[in-house]
Amino acid sequence: MNSDPVCLIPGQKYLDHMxxxxxxxxDLRVVDHPALAVAAQRGRVLPVYIVEPDLWAQPDxxxxxxxxxxxxxxxLRRDLAALGQPLLIRTGEAVAVxxxxxxxxxxxxxxxxxxxxxGWTYARDRRVAAWARGQGIEWQELPQTGVVRxxxxxxxxxxRRDGFMSLPPPAPPALETVAEGSxxxxxxxxxxxxxxxxxxxxxxxxxxxxxxxxxxxxxxxxHYRTAMSSPTSAERACSRLSPYLAFGALSAREVSQATExxxxxxxxxxxxxxxxxxxxxxxxxRDHFIQKLEDEPALEHRALHPAMEDLRPVPDPAHxxxxxxxxxxxxxxxxxxxxxxxxxxxxxxMRAMLVSVASYHLWLDWRATGPFLxxxxxxxxxxxxxxxxxxQSGTTGINTIRIYNPVKQGxxxxxxxxxxxxxxxxxxxxxxxxxxxxxxWPAARDLLGGRYPEPIIDPAAAAREAREKVWARRRAAGxxxxxxxxxxxxxxxxxxxxxxxxxxxxxxxxxxxx
Length: 514
Hints:
Elements: E1 7-8, E2 19-24, H1 34-42, E3 44-51, H2 53-56, H3 63-83, E4 88-91, H4 94-105, E5 109-113, H5 119-135, E6 138-142, H6 157-166, E7 179-180, H7 206-218, H8 224-227, H9 231-237, H10 242-246, H11 252-262, H12 272-295, H13 317-325, H14 331-343, H15 348-361, H16 366-376, H17 382-393, H18 406-413, H19 418-423, H20 459-474, H21 479-490
Parallel strand pairs: 2-3, 2-5, 3-4, 5-6
Antiparallel strand pairs: 1-7
């Protein structure tokens, strides 16, 4: 546990009842930070970030995520120092860290943002709340986005969310220096995180996020709506802001308001209008999905529809390992997985395809594949991730069953094969006409099973079998009634949450390419 002393500025009271501790979590910025602004209005502020080794030991955490966070912390420490009070970084269990800081500084209040995190952070927050009550310390939690805590249902949610997003964000407050000695930012190795080579990971920090936002709204976003689906074009056309939003280096509100402010600049220019409208819709959908986890924390572990709980009871370990390594023998699937290994990011349609192939063709339970993907995503956001894992694997009971054809996806999104050739160099000898289905190449016997694996399943046969299994559950007596209950609690009120015979091409399942 980190035990760096808190160096109080001479002349400060040992017990300062006007001192508020601001607990930074997934909100690593000073701009549009309601918790910091409210604490500053109360009096003196002690900004603290707690590095929690047990959090980073969870199965959804990885070194690539921590390294991104560490870079965000460096920017946050600089920005807080410029306001007048450096950030204190402490390592250890949250209650123990807070108790020690309280004994030294005498803070009377904790102010933080509401966090919709994983099950571990939910349990930790309950422990902190119990400790604070026992000490007579107020803990004030404030929203930092459109997610609404303790809503009885979804009726009226969109209006409340839009109202919050339209409010002017608070400016960074001037802070009085009350303590020195910020503490070290630990390395991934010191947190005992597994080696995680991510050669092309995005660099963290608010400065980098602001540069990406500017380049997206000024240049890259013009073809966002039409270029987001293919991994060959999405890397540039998408905003790439998702990790900065996930860890709060940027706020969703400032991104939304910056997007709205940019629209007049591009009025009449080809592509910009539809692209910016589409991007704004995706920022709203981001809150929509996080709201699901806020309303039902068990969503991370339990199928939304009870009939789907044991749909895929025993994952095949060989299939799981092949999918994780990018060695399924399905070239476009494997190329997407290897790209994700190397970058920590993947456009949303391809994320959906990876989950679909794992869930249907390989018949793997979402709880077996979800933690692995969470670790790969630098932009891992629990509310979006677990909602989407269930949606794409067909366990919500209210969404369209979308079984992606991995060969067709490759032909549609990588018709030239350039993406496959870049990430699967072992397929270099395969002619263009057979690249998406190398098992059909007459000379494939010299390649498959050696340098590149044979397909571990027959895509068409596996899809048919999966479809029959899923629809057998959906047709069962009582399924529709339980699905209606899920829809009442979680479905958007802007569209019918009923199974469609033909899914729309731009449905909610394809709406999160930030």
